Amino acid sequence: MTLNSFFPSRTITWYLAKTFLVRILAVVAGMALILQTLDLLSESGRILAYEGNGQAQILRYISLRMPQIVSWPILPFSVLLATIITLTTLNQNSEVISLKASGLSAHQVLAPLIVAALGVAIVSFAFNDRVVARATATLDTWRKVDYGPIPVDRGDRTNVWVRRGNDLIHASRISGRGAGARLAGVSLYEREAGRLTYVILADAGRPEGNGWRVTNARRFDVASGRQSALGNPLVAQGVRPDQFTLSSVSADGLSFGALSAAIDDLRDAGRPTKALEGNLWHKLSGPLSAVLMPLLGAVAAFGVARSGKLFIRAVIGMALGFAYFVADNFALAMGTLGAYPPFLAAWAPFLLFLLVGEAVLIRTEE
């Protein structure tokens, strides 16, 4: 059995793939324009609220937000809609009947669409990795400063929390890494049996030995309400610098390689990584969901159009696609909470609906 036996003729393969891709581009363009307009209407007030912002900042916001909108949910949903539109049109024009009458199976009819969807998945992964991740990181930073000038990123982190037993440590800013780490605006909340007892405030801190040497420290006694000066004591014994520098990792703002490296760093530091591992796997399974859409929407391709059930078949195809999106989001949320293993959270919906799509296709047509 050769590879050509899985596909119709070259002319038909190119015709089906081209028709499918053109409809994907049309749906993506239309939906992106509508959703970007609605999003801009809700966000333009905040952008223009910052003094000095104008049309340039609006255009910059569009350039950063558009990749996010196209990536999710437009692209996988557009593949689903393009599948249903393409297959419904072919069915109405009796082209599917002609293809099957020539001896082609349902899988052979769908093969050009699946290959085209695989190409879309590869482009989607590269687009997410090279464009969307950077745009997301920049937009998140811009939002934190209320759409004002973005400060130069020197690797600093702000508003960092670290837990040590029952105690909580907060730093308004940390710069540097390892022995060169420096804290600013340090607050140490000492608790006993879940009750706050003391609060230590300091202007700055640096690692020394197994703890942190803080400067100009003051201790506030919660019970008595009194504050006393401590000078420059050594506090936070056992807290490592990487617990501050690795405390904030945004999966959406990192590429696949950068997120994998961050997970390794967190794992070496003894930090939990299950939620991030699920997001790492989803960077692969998410774009690959485009391959499922021709299979889930295939129910709209077959059956006699004049029977009056074509619309019902199209609705069933859309329902299967929506069910996949719901299951995918649910599984990813369960993975973030730790209820599902990372691999299962990312791949279980894909594998489940792959079997569902194959079962429906084989049961009805093969």
User: Which range best describes the helical content: under 10%, 10-25%, 25-40%, 40-55%, 55-70% or over 70%?
Assistant: 55-70%
Distance between the termini: 19 Å
* Shape category: elongated
The SSE order reads HHHHEEEEEEEEHHHHHH
Mean pLDDT: 88
Q: Which structural class matches the secondary elements? A: alpha+beta
The share of residues in extended strands comes to: 15-25%
**Tally of DSSP helical segments:** 10
Low-confidence stretches: none
**Nearest-angstrom radius of gyration?**
27 Å
Biggest pleated-sheet summary: 8 strands, antiparallel
Pfam family, one: LptF_LptG
Keywords: Cell membrane, Membrane, Transmembrane, Transmembrane helix
InterPro entries: LptG, LptG/LptF_permease
Membrane topology: Multi-pass membrane protein
Short recap of the structure:
The protein is an alpha+beta fold.
Features:
single chain; 16% strand; 10 helices; 366 residues; alpha+beta
Q: Could you explain how this protein is built, in words?
A:
Helices cover 58% and strands 16% of the residues. It has helices at 10-49, 55-92, 95-101, 106-144, 242-245, 256-268, 274-288, 292-296, 310-337, 342-364; strands spanning 157-164, 167-175, 182-192, 195-208, 211-215, 217-221, 227-231, 234-235. Helix 1 (10-49) packs parallel to helix 4 (106-144). The protein starts with 9 loop residues before the first helix and ends with a helix. By secondary structure, it is an alpha+beta fold. Strand 3 (182-192) and strand 4 form a beta hairpin.
